[in-house]
Automatic annotation (TrEMBL), chain A:
GO terms for molecular function: cobalamin binding; metal ion binding; methionine synthase activity. One of its GO terms (cellular component) is cytosol. One of its GO terms (biological process) is methylation. Pfam families: B12-binding (PF02310), B12-binding_2 (PF02607). The lineage of its organism: Bacteria, Pseudomonadati, Thermodesulfobacteriota, Desulfovibrionia, Desulfovibrionales. The keyword Oxidoreductase does not apply. The gene is metH_1. PANTHER family: METHIONINE SYNTHASE. Its EC number is 2.1.1.13. This is Methionine synthase. Keywords: Cobalt, Metal-binding, Methyltransferase, Transferase. It is an enzyme of class 2 (transferase). It comes from Fundidesulfovibrio magnetotacticus. Residues 92-225 form the B12-binding domain.
Automatic annotation (TrEMBL), chain B:
It holds the Pfam family URO-D. Residues 4-335 form the Uroporphyrinogen decarboxylase (URO-D) domain. Gene3D superfamilies: 3.20.20.210. GO terms for molecular function: uroporphyrinogen decarboxylase activity. This is Uroporphyrinogen decarboxylase (URO-D) domain-containing protein. InterPro entries: Methanogen_methyltrans, UROD/MetE-like_sf, Uroporphyrinogen_deCOase.
Length: 226, 341
């Protein structure tokens, strides 16, 4: 890595952890103008997001800092798409995400959507308070192999079991992987098994890596005959 | 000594017959009386009966008013969902987003059923127990109420990027905090205990806390006509206490079970009371023997600190906690006997 690139990454990291969204985007913007948005995203932003993700997982970063990282990624992806709408390449997915029925805590889910999109996933976000059956209906309709369900509280996390049951009832087990996340899942990891999740991760920044694993697992299962 | 004497001794750093202690058994009273939670969290008499049962069970030195912070959110227009074994939770925020603040209801302390319930429960508790036990009025911190009203995501957005909305929400939340604290203190509460989440560097950057959290908190606290216990809100707080140690009217700090009380004491100095250090939400996983041993170990570790009060941390002691485990904590405190001479 050149010294210039390292300096850019360090400068971006500094802006994000100081919650200076505008300055961070300005920096990426200027890199994009000189070397292209692809360079700004893949060479400058992505390594910084990896570093932020690692610190977040170790509890060394605040929610606000993680949120700003997501907003910066969102801003620069939007600019990239606007600058060259034809060059967004081949999307992975699609995947379906949403907050489980009765859950209205959208923050984590929105951050997951941003980081998945930054990693090239086609994300269909069903929003808050989604009935279990709607997750599976939409996944079947789109041919999605991953459903991501978020819940913040224990009382709503328990509703995820109904998504598991619906996936199984339709014979989609394995073919459709169930990713789960949210504050209560981080606090009580045993809930992954309790509610029948196929995987989880500690922060939104780690969601792309989890979805890569789950997608590969689904492909290994292949198609399921009705 | 009665409980009041014991707690005041801790506040003054004076000798006591034994360590003052409490468990957050607000919810647990309903389990002891077999009361449905919809009734428990709406009828002050039912709450009082539950706390009478708590006193019969373990006789803690401090009693708590209903730990049902979402009743405050309901007064602003949030929709709550009630559960069989847990306090009510916000299921729909009071408004759809930061552009929808006009739909926020202005709470009316005299008419809102939830707020009247909180104040009246305080009054009944104080009337029956106030002469012998301190009553802690549990209130939502001004920095946290907006997260209930507009969701955590919108509140983070306002804190980071929309300062006009941030200040408006904080102003409303602070006024409500002062009004409810004043009403509960007037009804007989001995002090206010306020769990605070959006004050912690796990949620905000240290710069945001210093610049945008401490000044409005300081302003709100200075308007409260009584002492305040600043509660960790479920996150480790000790390492950050330098930012909060000069807040006005703060009598003490309730810390997380993961906190180092020695570190906290070194930061805040000799005077504030420190409360903790047994995790309430983890009590169901402890056997009575385990709870007894853990309690004694904590008491032993804090033996030399006269301004330490043993208490469970975080939220309510869960419904599923066996009675014997709760009783074992009280027994361990009493068995430890006189510790300060």
């Amino acid at each position: 890595m050149t010294q210039d690139l390292q300096d850019l990454q360090e400068a971006l990291f500094e802006q994000i952890i100081e919650a200076r969204r505008d300055k961070a985007v300005e920096l990426l913007d200027s890199v994009g103008a000189g070397k292209g948005f692809s360079y700004a995203v893949h060479e400058v932003l992505e390594p910084v997001l990896v570093e932020i993700g690692e610190r977040w997982a170790k509890d060394k970063l605040s929610l606000a800092q993680g949120y700003v990282a997501g907003k910066v990624a969102e801003d620069i992806l939007f600019k990239m798409a606007k600058a060259s709408p034809q060059s967004d390449g081949e999307k992975k997915g699609p995947v379906v995400i949403g907050n489980i029925e009765d859950d209205h805590h959208a923050l984590g889910r929105k951050m997951v959507a941003v980081f998945l999109a930054a990693a090239g996933w086609g994300v269909v976000d069903l929003g808050n308070d989604v009935p279990p059956i709607d997750f599976v209906d939409k996944a079947e309709e789109l041919g999605a192999r991953i459903i991501g369900v978020s819940a913040m509280m224990l009382t709503t996390a328990e509703n995820i079991i109904l998504v598991r049951q619906e996936i199984d009832r339709r014979g989609l087990s394995g073919r459709v992987q169930l990713a789960i996340g949210g504050a209560v899942i981080n606090l009580r990891p045993e809930l992954v098994d309790t509610v029948g999740g196929d995987g989880t991760c500690a922060s939104a920044i780690q969601a792309p890596a989890l979805f890569d694993i789950l997608w590969a697992r689904s492909l290994a299962v292949g198609e399921v005959s009705p | 000594m009665n409980s009041l004497d014991r707690v005041f001794a801790a506040v003054k750093g004076e000798p006591a017959d034994r360590r003052a202690f409490s468990l957050v058994l607000s919810l647990y009273g309903a389990k002891l009386t077999g009361c449905s939670l919809s009734e428990y969290y709406s009828k002050p008499e039912a709450y009082l009966a539950g706390q009478r049962a708590v006193v019969d069970l373990v006789d803690p030195d401090i009693l708590f008013t209903p730990f049902a912070l979402t009743l405050e959110a309901q007064a602003f227009g949030c929709t709550l969902k009630h559960f069989d074994t847990a306090p009510p939770n916000v299921i729909r925020p009071a408004c759809k987003g930061l552009n929808d603040l006009a739909t926020l209801r202005a709470p009316d302390m005299a008419k809102d059923p939830g707020l009247r319930y909180l104040v009246e429960s305080t009054r009944l508790l104080a009337r029956e127990f106030g002469g012998e036990k301190p009553i802690a009025a549990v209130l939502t911190a001004p920095m946290d109420l907006p997260a209930l009203l507009v969701t955590i995501g919108e509140w983070i957005e306002a804190l980071l990027f929309n300062f006009e909305v941030r200040d408006e929400l904080l102003g409303r939340a602070s006024n409500h905090f002062v009004a409810l604290a004043s009403a509960m203190l007037e009804a007989g509460a001995s002090f206010v205990a306020t769990p605070a989440v959006f004050i912690n560097p796990r949620f905000l950057t240290p710069g945001m806390v210093r610049e945008h959290v401490v000044p409005p908190l300081s302003s709100a606290f200075s308007r409260v006509p009584g002492p305040i216990v600043f509660h960790h809100g479920g996150n480790p707080l000790a390492a950050h206490l330098d930012m909060f140690k000069t807040l006005p009217n703060v009598l003490g700090f309730a810390l997380d079970h993961r906190d180092s009380f020695a570190e906290a004491r070194a930061i805040v100095g000799d005077n504030p009371v420190l409360l903790g250090n047994l995790s309430g939400p983890h009590l169901p996983g402890l056997s009575p023997e385990g709870a007894y041993d853990r309690t004694q170990a904590i008491l032993s570790e804090r033996e030399a600190d006269p301004r330490f009060i043993f208490c469970t941390s975080s939220a309510d002691v869960p419904w599923s906690t066996p009675l014997e485990t709760v009783k074992a904590v009280g027994r361990a405190v009493r068995d430890a006997g006189r510790e300060m001479t």
